[in-house]
Specification:
This protein has about 150 residues and is mainly β. The protein contains no helices and 13 strands. It has strands spanning about 5, 15, 35-40, 50-55, 60, 65-70, 80-85, 90-95, 100-110, 110-115, 115-120, 130-140, 145. The chain has a five-stranded antiparallel beta sheet with strand order 1-4-11-7-8, with no helix packed on it. A five-stranded antiparallel beta sheet has the order 2-3-12-6-9, with no helix packed on it.
């Protein structure tokens, strides 16, 4: 696939189809009705622990727009950020963001060898599951996106 779990973080993103193991936090099911990825905020996780999902190097000669769904449901949601290599943080949200999936669109700069990262940061308690789903890239013009040569 296009995504890999980073090894330079505190914990991992987990793939799931139904609701997260903890009550009162996380989505009930995938936004696209298949799988989603989430961070589990329960023990042994602690406040500030970070999980990073990083793309393989991508090429967008004219830039692109990345769209994705996110769920930030719970009493102690930390934060979710999108980073692009060479551009830093291009999108972020903190705290609870409603009781359902939300959709976001993020501009991706033109370039080759770009890496996009989703950074989930645990909040103050176990009621802080954050999930992402249905990630799509639409190039601004030119050829379809693909791995950098």
């Amino acid at each position: 696939g296009w995504w890999e779990d980073a090894t330079d973080d505190a914990f991992d993103w987990t793939r799931r189809t139904s609701r997260t193991p903890s009550s009162s936090t996380g989505p009930n099911n995938a936004d696209d009705l298949n799988y989603y990825l989430f961070i589990e905020a329960s023990s042994p996780r602690k406040n500030g622990d970070t999980a990073i999902l990083r793309s393989k190097p991508l090429a967008f000669p004219s830039g692109a727009t990345m769209s994705f769904s996110y769920s930030m449901v719970g009493g102690s949601i930390g934060s979710l950020a999108v980073e692009v290599s060479g551009a830093g943080v291009v999108w972020s949200k903190s705290g609870a963001q409603g009781n359902d999936w939300n959709r976001a669109s993020v501009p991706i700069r033109a370039g080759t060898g770009l890496q996009v990262s989703f950074k989930g940061i645990r909040g103050s308690s176990w009621q802080g599951d954050i999930a992402i789903d249905d990630i799509e890239f639409v190039p601004n013009s030119g050829p379809a996106p693909g791995p950098a040569a």
